[in-house]
Structures are given as C-alpha cells and as structure tokens.
Amino acid sequence: MTVVRTGTVVDVGIPAVRTAPDVAGRPDVPELVDSFGRVARDLRVSITEKCSLRCTYCMPAEGLPAVPRTQLLTTDEIVRLVGVAVHRLGVREVRFTGGEPLMRRDLEDIVAGCAERVPGIPLAMTTNAVGLEHRADALARAGLTRVNVSLDTVDRAHFAELTRRDRLPSVLTGIRAAQQAGLAPMKINAVLMSETLSGAAELLEWCLAAGCALRFIEQMPLDADHEWARENMVGAQALLNVLGARFALEEIGREDPSSPAEEWLVNGGPATVGIIGSVTRPFCEDCDRTRLTAEGTVRSCLFSDQEVDLRDALRSGATDEDLALLWRAAMWGKWAGHGINAAGFIPPQRSMGAIGG
User: What is the pTM (predicted TM-score) of this model?
Assistant: First the structure.
C-alpha cells in the first residue's frame, strides 16, 4: 500500500500514516490518555520485522518483506523515543519485540542505552529464544530485566511443523541461559490453536518442572496469510476443559485490571497458568498499551491501521515535546475495542510480526 510521508509517496507496504490527528476534546495532561479514559503506560517497541522462525500463525513461509535499513529506527532513535515515552508521557514499562529482537545485532546497545536513559524502568523482551544462550548474559548486563519466550510445544517434531524450523533444542537452551542470567520471572507464551490444544497439558507440565509461568493466548486475526476464521479458533473454555482433566485449577482472576491474562492456580499453587482470551474474553476497556513499530510509527491498537509517524518528525528536527505532542494525539484517537466479534470486522493489514507483539 502506498503512504504519504511529508509530501512523498512511498510504496512500503504499511498502513496509512496520519501526521496530524484530531485532538479535539483532549484534556491538557502529559499522559497518554485516550477519549475513553484509558491511560497507556506499557510501551511495546518493535525493533525489526525479521525473524529466525516462520510460525504458521504469524509469518508466511518466505518471511515478511524486508524493510530497508534506512527506514528502521536506529539505536539512538529508539533510545530517544523511549526516553520521551517515560519522561514526558508517563510510560512505566518497556518491552522490546519484533519480528525477533535477537535479529538486531545492536540489541545490547539498544537495551544499554535505554537503561541509562530511563533508569529504574523495567526493560523486558519478547523472543523466540533461538540463539539466546549466546547473548543472555550480555543482555542482562546491559540492563534487560526479564524475557517472555514464545513457545507453543515441547514436542520437537510438532515444533518444527509449526515454526517451519527444527530449532527447539536452541529454544530450550536459550530459556535455561536466560534463567541462569537472572532474566526472571520467566514467562512462556503459547498460542492456543487446534494444532496445539492436544499438547497443552504436556506444555504446562514442562513449564511447572522448568520453573516457568505459562500463558496461553487465543489466536487472533493477525496472521500474514489471513487464514484466521472465528468459527475455527479455539477458545479459553476449551483449553480449561483440557487442562482441567489433568490439573486442579482454581481461578484467581487478573493480577491488576490492565493485565491481559486471567490466572488459575495449578494444583493448589504457588504455580499458575494464565489465559489471554483476546477474542472470547476481551479486555480492551482496560488496555494500557501503546506501540511503536520498527519504522517509527505509533500504533494505538493492534487492530487499527492508522499510524502516526514519529520517525520523520524526529529526523526533521522535532524537539522531544514535539514528539510527545504527536504521540499524545495518536493515543487520543484509540479505538474503544478491536471489534473482532462484530459483524463486518476487517483484520488489520499488518500481521503480528510486522506490528510487534
């Protein structure tokens, strides 16, 4: 799709970019408030569209189209925008995503720069853990505080089928290395699908033994091949039925209202299992996230194809307050909810791999 960036039409395959959002009615406050009263304090920063796996529910077999390096935010630009988010906009947690963050050779520099710019702010990362064993110690020294690992199965053949890569041993080694480096608490994210439901209990058993907190995520219409169908998805209740056949589960709800995961004690605790029911148990009314794409656009909602460009403003000499004003405007226009269950729902153009998890 063609988009307009400061008067130049560029075919980059991303959604329409707004440079002057409507802020009518917005209160004069520094935080990232939207028109429904929500305040965004959790920043997700995608740093690349590249990934070392090709998960069937996320990426096409050939991967996503490459983004020219000049269109990606640089290390210094990421650090500056994270500083703006924390010091001017009230962000209190930062998570680096992709694609796969480990595909950036300068990841340690990004983390170290952010740790210096926003001391005391938790810096986390969502990763597939392929190759993490070689970098976990350096990332911890740089200031990374914890990681979430995407892992749908501990069956090697099934893993290779789902990801189109036979890399499960590397993932498991990476998880152990991250734990040894002190990147904790360790959370495992598993996408809930018909292909993974039968192995859900085995994955939970493995997580309990490995000291990892498991969270299942309902599959959302964010796949690059656009094959998701509401009638085919596996909901939270089906998972609870499967897990309940092997484990005693006691519902304890959410840790806080903005947390997307509902938690259950497993066999009396202290271990828990979480379910993020994005489709059947939506939590949009409590969403506190703001997203920065690898190209430097603000995305107020996973499912909104309206993005506000900070990169060009930054490279054109914008001050930190100029960037903050654009960011506040972007979040003021956030939707009430994703609308997956509404008639006429249209999935976003970008896939999860291109948006950032």
Answer: 0.90
Q: What are phi and psi of 67, to 5 degrees?
A: -95, 125
Structure tokens at 154: 């501990």
109 in any annotated domain: yes
Contact 95, 111 (CB under 8 A): no
Residue 24 inside a domain? The answer is no
Residue 84 lies in a domain: yes
Distance CA 3, CA 19 (A): 11
> What is the pLDDT tens value at each position of the chain, 357 positions in all?
333 333 333 333 455 566 656 899 999 999 999 999 999 999 999 999 999 999 888 888 888 788 899 999 999 999 999 999 999 999 999 999 999 999 999 999 999 999 999 999 999 999 999 999 999 999 999 999 999 999 999 999 999 999 999 999 999 999 999 999 999 899 999 999 888 899 999 999 999 999 999 999 988 766 666 666 666 778 889 999 999 999 999 999 887 777 788 999 999 999 999 998 878 787 888 999 999 999 999 999 887 878 899 999 999 999 999 999 999 999 999 988 776 666 666 666 666 666 665
Instruction: Write out the residue range of the structural domain in which residue 66 sits.
Output: 40-343
Phi, psi of 179 (to 5 degrees): -60, -45
The total number of structural domains that make up the chain: 1
305 and 350 Cβ atoms separated by less than 8 Å: yes
The enclosing domain of 261 has a CATH number of: 3.20.20.70
244 belongs to a structural domain: yes
Collapsing DSSP to helix, strand or coil, 87 comes out as helix
